[in-house]
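Dear colleague,

As promised, here are the two records you asked about, laid out in our usual form so they can be pasted straight into your sheet.

NAME FIELD: protein one
SEQUENCE, THEN STRUCTURE:
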Amino acid sequence: MSENTELNWLVNPDTGFYNFERYVDESYLDLVSTDPNKMISYPIPYLNDALGGIMKSEFVVIGADSGCGKTELANSIAFHNARQGKEVYLFSLEGDRYEVMNRQRYKLYMQMVNETARYDMKITYREFMQNKFDDKFRKKFHAELIVIDELFKSKYKSLHVYNREEFLTMDLFEGHLDLIKNKAEVIIIDHLHYFDFRTSNEYSEINEIMKRIKRLQDTYRLPIILISHLRKKEKTRIFPDQNDFHGSSNIVKQADTCIAIAHPDIVSEESNKDYEEQVKTGVFRTGIRVVKARTGFSSRLLALVDYDLSKRRYDKGYKLAICGNQFITDMDEENYPKWAKEGKNAEGKS
């Protein structure tokens, strides 16, 4: 029985409105049947501390500047939840068709290198993709990859990666979703601007895509995570907000939760030296800002999290700051909200 058919008994056919008593009962049963231990979660502790994970019927849009790891985050969410046994369907529309696997393969390879202190086997992602390795380590390198791949096969069986044999249109996406709706526990789309537009009017196309995705998410009550571009950064922008999602105001309007990720742009001699150190170490201070949440959240709160480029992952710890149109001010730890103080990952906590 479809979701729409199941709801018919709640609705007065003459008016199209719910029978309120039954609506109360149904909403109560839906609420108490929600298992907090089975929520879809983020691979970034800050977002789990702040938002408590992703609700069973939530449309999340994540926007990031170029080079801030949009695809990396989409893939991390997918693998993180698949490792927990969730049925994850990843529509990866950008980059090479095998990029999803190779990014994660490199991440686990570098994890092995760091954990075993085999720094002589350390290579960049570009070298990894070129299979560019010292001949004396080549056999060991390939042996490690086989071990890593066997781990993937055994631990991530519930991850499903879209086969891009044709461009993804909204009609095609809707058809795929209809086929997997009863099995899927989370849908991830990377990303909005790689849908195949039917016309050259990007604004109109994005409006239509957002409306249709929202309607599908509402019908099937599935969490959907959509990756999006941010607008080209203006000189006066310190950190992106709701107005910086590229393409249409409907991106923010249709989403339940919007998250912006960027490198804080503070121009000063001290900040320039700090950035030089980030380039030297490959560990970049990244800002994460929840710019919209229908469940309630301060859009001025900013988390500062280190992203290690060599390990391809965010640090567990974070600092909080207050973000305005033209400033970012560190927040005193004693004034952190309760969820950050109780969490184990805010800096200064165990």
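NAME FIELD: protein two
SEQUENCE, THEN STRUCTURE:
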Amino acid sequence: MRSRFDWPLILAILALAAISLSVIFSIDRQLATNQLIFWLLGLSLFWVVSRAIVQLWQKLAIPAYLATIISLVLVFLIGEEIRGALRWIDLGIFRFQPSEIAKLTTIVILSTFYLKKTAGEFPNIVTSLIIIAPIFLLIFRQPDIGSALSIIAIWAGISYVAKINKKTALTLFLATLIILPLIFNFIAPYQKQRLTAFINPREDPLGSGYNIIQSKIAVGSGLLLGRGLGRGSQSQLNFLPEAESDFIFAAIVEELGLLGGGTVVLIFIFILLRIHAALENKDSFAQLLATGTLALLTYQIMVNIGMNLGLIPVTGITLPLVSYGGSSLITTLVLLGIVSLPQR
């Protein structure tokens, strides 16, 4: 058991909690109450996980992997469809999103696999891709391209630290570029509209381009200090869709301004640097876990903020520790608990 906490990391997490809950409260008080409950549960799990030795996760890797695949299959059997996507399982008391748990499982199973393997050998690369293939395909089929690509981001990060051959990495990258146009034919119609809307959102301002346009308006209206909590016209009058989740960064900038949005970005940078510090851990398994977590959070932060600023297509990726939602929040806190360093 670990005896001490990484207090700087904890304070950074609590700072994001304060900003998140304040903005969500300004949008919907009931959602803020729900999110507070998620935070209390997530922080409790963070405390438990951060006190356990990381090697415990090696024993849980295969059972967790199998349970995750089963839960992803169950989504298609008993899942709740929302806006054309099957991503949630309703247990009556609460709903959970298996694809979020799958991110944690992917990090653990790949870290366990590469603990005694090297990505420098091509057969190991093939095996690692076979391992993540069921998770990737099941999430892609929901459809949830954003979360499916996060699985690839995790694999790329861990494989890099596991010393993947540069020639192999280049070959896989070129193969991906060739396959991408083919993948476009298999995505849902609304997802195709999101991609085309990104190129020219004003072609359909009340349809596929609506989200991007409203998000840009919210960000632009915040100026330096923002309109104030509860005073953002886009988020308060429901012009900004999913203001508490997918587009919460736009809501933050609208209400707290560039100063508030910049503060969130700086806190994220600090958290990512603390995770990067875990790479100095002499334990190889801890290094791999930290790498997977770093790759996942970097991907999600960049995609969500880029989406809010209109720099990349809308994918539905939430902002870690900030967006409304229990599955994403609890998964992120568990990951941070796993990789957090004892205080020095």
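A couple of things worth noting about protein two: The chain has one domain: 7-339. Residues 7-339 form one domain.

Best,
R.
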